[in-house]
Amino acid sequence: xxxxxxxxxxxxxxxxxxxxxxxxxxxxxxxxxxxxxxxxxxxxxxxxxxxxxxxxxxxxxxxxxxxxxxxxxxxxxxxxxxxxxxxxxxxxxxxxxxxxxxxxxxxxxxxxxxxxxxxxxxxxxxxxxxxxxxxxxxxxxxxxxxxxxxxxxxxxxxxxxxxxxxxxxxxxxxxxxxxxxxxxxxxxxxxxxxxxxxxxxxxxxxxxxxxxxxxxxxxxxxxxxxxxxxxxxxxxxxxxxxxxxxxxxxxxxxxxxxxxxxxxxxxxxxxxxxxxxxxxxxxxxxxxxxxxxxxxxxxxxxxxxxxxxxxxxxxxxxxxxxxxxxxxxxxxxxxxxxxxxxxxxxxxxxxxxxxxxxxxxxxxxxxxxxxxxxxxxxxxxxxxxxxxxxxxxxxxxxxxxxxxxxxxxxxxxxxxxxxxxxxxxxxxxxxxxxxxxxxxxxxxxxxxxxxxxxxxxxxxxxxxxxxxxxxxxxxxxxxxxxxxxxxxxxxxxxxxxxxxxxxxxxxxxxxxxxxxxxxxxxxxxxxxxxxxxxxxxxxxxxxxxxxxxxxxxxxxxxxxxxxxxxxxxxxxxxxxxxxxxxxxxxxxxxxxxxxxxxxxxxxxxxxxxxxxxxxxxxxxxxxxxxxxxxxxxxxxxxxxxxxxxxxxxxxxxxxxxxxxxxxxxxxxxxxxxxxxxxxxxxxxxxxxxxxxxxxxxxxxxxxxxxxxxxxxxxxxxxxxxxxxxxxxxxxxxxxxxxxxxxxxxxxxx
Length: 749
Hints:
Elements: E1 6-11, H1 14-22, E2 27-31, H2 49-58, E3 62-67, H3 76-86, E4 93-96, H4 99-108, E5 114-116, H5 125-134, E6 136-140, H6 147-159, E7 163-170, H7 182-187, E8 219-221, H8 226-231, E9 236-239, H9 246-266, E10 284-285, H10 287-290, H11 306-314, H12 319-344, E11 352-360, E12 365-372, E13 377-386, E14 388-389, H13 397-404, E15 412-422, E16 426-427, H14 430-444, E17 470-475, E18 490-494, H15 505-512, E19 516-520, H16 527-539, E20 543-546, H17 549-558, E21 561-564, H18 573-583, E22 587-589, H19 596-600, E23 609-622, H20 641-646, E24 650-654, E25 660-664, E26 672-680, H21 683-688, E27 694-698, H22 712-723, H23 728-736, E28 740-741, H24 743-747
Parallel strand pairs: 1-2, 1-9, 2-3, 3-4, 4-5, 5-6, 6-7, 7-9, 8-10, 11-15, 17-18, 17-27, 18-19, 19-20, 20-21, 21-22, 22-23, 23-27, 26-28
Antiparallel strand pairs: 7-8, 11-12, 12-13, 14-16, 23-26, 24-25, 25-26
């Protein structure tokens, strides 16, 4: 095997990073206190970064920093400060979710390498092209993909000079990453902000199938799939676990390191994965990668399975023997911990200490000697001009300290500042001192040019072209197309997530009724993406709404006007600019996760439409797995090709607090879970009506569960009355929609 494959390990704190580096990781990913998607990890301060970079680079290990959350408008200034610091470090890449960060980095911080986060749900050809276009250098492929899909997208990524990255070990989300809102809705902690409360690991009332943890997946492990991943052209194997401790990180990284080394050297695999079972796990599955989605992917406990695995493997049954197995396991765990402690005991990531010493005499240069304490490196510099007698304002230690206080940036601590070798009452042109400082900075920065801080211009908030706002509606069933006759509202038609290959049903529908505007979903994998592209090519609609950047990219290539849907999670002006400048986007839905004040700060791009959904079912999560195997039960052993197209089951699950959620599967749709309440927010019409061109209502029956279907014609009438200022319409709406909430609008992110 010629290709070197990267092992990418997690680092939730300094000790875990040391563990990853010493265990042989080729790269480690970690986060700062802010802007990263693991708030529960200890994370790092900026002062930790220089020492971590030094340690990692001494071991030929790269460091990637996670900035992988959606960014609010008021946070842009703080984010820019972080980016201005990062460009003068040796950071090897940043991991990004927010589309606005791509815009900022591409324009103002082009030396930073951007990695597309798993939160961007990358799973089709168009998305790869989109990410290449907006400046990504690598992408993390969705965990739900099978090996053939991984191979196809990795090959395409390479054609666009992108590296591919795949999660191979650690916790699995049952939902598509970036498309889970359960935590945000239930407790106000958004997964898109690094605060996931893991509702999928919660206990529920026992289901018909006899499970109390019906959403809890086993952990991912592709340990024995390494040859297939190498054959697929994957560049980086990523281990999940930034909230795991150093012991876990060391054990998993070390085990994978040995597997990769063995395969690279001999083409063979190690058969022993025992150490992976000795640290926290929920048992293991590789079923997503295999494309074999069975109920065996689930486990009815979110807790550590390591003891149960040890007992099961030992096949003992007596209590005494079981206790001995447990003791043996603890001893082996402790042995791994001791091994780690011994290896990292002398490793320090403290900043290197430097001393600055100035000397000089009359008619001699001003000389600066820098001593780096940790390695006794001595650097000597001197000015081009010589010192002369001062008539006034001579050079003194306070003057030099003020001039050189930032010479080390955040990379070093200045432990000593000595001017005893400098004679008194001497002077030199100040530009010579500045030159000396710049030379010293370059030496300490290993000769890289210092990048000056970028200043981000204030964005212009363009006014909308009209004082009026209109209504738009979404339908998903041809029987509801008669609603077009009842209103002047734009009517969007939801294209399913799954489409029968070669079927012209939706093409004919859209060609026969030009009033229907295609609405494309967030997830379109494989043939479903191809069929969606075929709809665009055959229908060539004047306008579409897309929740998938892959379809948006195709629409842009075809010159079709498009609107960014609500599941693209736009929360700031720069995200809107990315969509407009890179793909000629005509408008966007603003995220329903943010509140009134957060919305109000967003600056509208020129000639750009802003839309907000005021009524819709609240999606909690969407999955490629089946929710019915573990709830009502399903006779099929695994998900078949026809399941997506034909299945239309529904049920409810109830958590231990007594709150029920609708589990819904439409024909052609992914299994999804919805909140028991509908989102209904008419306050925004009065609060921020002047900001929005269009208010949207979802009249599909998706996610309604057992709730009675309201009169859709009456709903349209009442919402139109709201927009026309009818004060009685709000009361009428609340009588029609008995279970509703607008908490996200009140609470925000």
